[in-house]
C-alpha cells in the first residue's frame, strides 16, 4: 500500500470517527448525567437529516438546512424528554430500553408518513462538493475535510462547555451525585431537559452532515446508533473525552480493517476467498477491538469516576 | 370484516364455477416484502406494481395478504410460517433480498407452496437447488451483471474495479460480471451489507489504476456511493446494474448519476402496448414513475393471474404447468421460462438522462439477446 493511500485512509478513518463522536457525545452525556439508555438517539440523527433535506429543498440553501436540523432535532429532544423520558428516570434500564425502542418505531413510521419511503435528495453546498488538492497533488473530498474540522470544533466547544461554564459544572455535578445537586437548589428537571436537548441537537447535526454524502432515508440512524454504543462502551460510559478517543479509535480501526484485511488474507488464500473472509472479519473488527479493551479495562478507556 | 370478504369472494367464485364457466377458483396470495427500514423503496415499488395488476384484473376472488419483513431474515421466516400455517395462503411472493429469500423459499416450497419471486434470484435456487414450485419472474441474480460484463467488453474497458456488498446477491453479482467480462480486474471488493460510507473503497479505486468501475449497491447504499464518488474527484467511468440506478434512487443521487450506463431487463421506454399502458397507469395511480421493481411486481401478479385463469391453484401439478407456460403479456415484451423456472429474456443497456426536471433512464441498445442464466444446465427440471 502506498503512503498516500495509507494517509488518505487515515483521514477517512478520522472523518468517520469524528461523525461517530457527534452521536456518541450526546449518548454518553445522557447516560452519564441522567442514567438513561436512549435507543431513540438514532432517530434524532434521522430527524436532523430529514429536516435538513426538506429545508434545503424548499429554500435551496444547505446552510439553512443545517440550522434547521439542529433546531428540529433539539426541539424533538425537548419534546421527547418532557413527554416520555421524564417518566423513565426512576425505572430500571429494561423499561427505558423498551420505551425508547418504541420511540424508534414511532419516529421512523412518522417520518415515513410525512416524507414517504423513498430516499430524499440532499447534496453538499457547491464549493464543498468537489475534491481539494492537498500536498503533492493528493486529492481529497472537500466536504469530508470540512466534517473533520467541524467535528474538531464541536469537540473543543463541548470541552469548554463542560469544564468552563456554570452549566458544565452542573452537568458534572449531576453525573457525580444527582440527589445532592437537587438538594442544593439546582432545578434538576430543567438541567436534564437541557442535556437531552444538547445531545439531540448534536445527533441531528451529525445526521444532516452525513445526509449530504449518504442517503437520507428512514432507518438511517440505527446502524450509526449501534456503533455509537460501541464507542461509548470503549471510551467509558459518561465521559466526553472517552467518547472522543473511542470514536476515533473505532473510525480508524474500522476503515483500516476494511482496507487491509482482504489484502492480508490474499497472501495465503485465493482472491475470492480472501475477499469474502476479509470482508467478514473487517465487519467484526470493531467488536473485537471492544472485547479486547474490555478485557483490560472493564470500565472503558476513560473511567468517569475521577 | 376480513372473513366476510373471504366468504363473499368464495361465494362469487362458487357461483362462477356452478355457472359452468371454465374459470378456476380464486386464490390467497401471501406477499412478504420490505416496507420499512432502509430498503423500503424497493418493497413499496414491488407491492404497488403487484396490486396495480390485481386491481386492473378486477378479480375479487384473489386475496392478497401483505406483510413487512423490515429486511430481517428471522422476521421473514416468522411471517412465512404464519402465512402458511394459520392464514393458509396458496402462493407466496414479494421477497426483495436474497438472504431473506434463502431463509424462506426452500422451506416454503418444501411444504408444497408455490413461490413466485418478483425480485431475488439467488444462484443457489437456480442450479442444483431449483424446485418445481419456485418461479422467478424477474431474473437470476447474475443476469444483469453478466450484461454489464458484456457491455464492458464492447466499451473496451480492460482494467475494471468491481465492488458489491457481501451477501448472496453481491457474490452472484461479481461472479456474473466476471463470467462475461474479458479484461483484467484492477480490484475486487466486498463491502458490508447496508454500509453507508465508501471512503475507504473509493480511495482503493483511486489507487488501483483502474480504467472503469463496476458496482452493485442496491437502495441507499448506491445513493451513498454515487454521491461520495462524485465528491472524491475520481472521474473514471462508472457502470452497474439497474439496481444502482433505478427510478427510486436517481432523484436522491441527483446530477452525479447523469450519463451512467446500466443494464436492465426492463425500461420505461421499451416499446410495447403492455408496457406503455403499465407506465401510464402506474403514474396515474401513484403519481411517480415506475422503477424496474414495480415492473417486476406487475409482471409477477400478471403471471399468477394468467395461471389462475387456466388451472385451480389447489391442483399444484396443473397450476405450476400453467405458470411455466408464462402465458401473460409482460412489460418486457418477449418472456419465457427456462427449464429451471427462471426467465429467458433480453437485457438492455440504459443511460441515465434528464427528461425535463426528472432524471430517468433511456435505452441505448441490447446487451444480451434471449439470455438464460448459467445455472440452468445444473437444474434437473425439464
Automatic annotation (TrEMBL), chain A:
Pfam family, one: BPD_transp_2
Transmembrane segment boundaries: 16-37, 44-64, 70-89, 101-122, 142-162, 183-213, 225-252, 273-296
Topology within the bilayer: Multi-pass membrane protein
Major localization listed first in the record, in broad terms: membrane
Keyword line: Amino-acid transport, Cell membrane, Membrane, Transmembrane, Transmembrane helix, Transport
InterPro entries (UniProt xref): ABC_transp_permease (IPR001851), BCAA_transport_permease (IPR052157)
UniProt keyword Transmembrane helix present: yes
Record flagged with keyword Ribosomal protein: no
Compartments reported by the entry: Cell membrane
Highest taxon of the lineage: Bacteria
Family statement: Belongs to the binding-protein-dependent transport system permease family. LivHM subfamily.
Protein's recorded name: Branched-chain amino acid ABC transporter permease
Automatic annotation (TrEMBL), chain B:
Species this protein is from: Maritalea mediterranea
A Pfam family reported for this protein in Swiss-Prot or TrEMBL: Peripla_BP_6
Signal peptide: 1-24
Membrane-traversing stretches: none
Keyword flag Cell wall biogenesis/degradation: no
Descriptive protein name: ABC transporter substrate-binding protein
Keyword set, alphabetical order: Amino-acid transport, Signal, Transport
Family the UniProt entry places it in: Belongs to the leucine-binding protein family.
Lineage: Bacteria, Pseudomonadati, Pseudomonadota, Alphaproteobacteria, Hyphomicrobiales
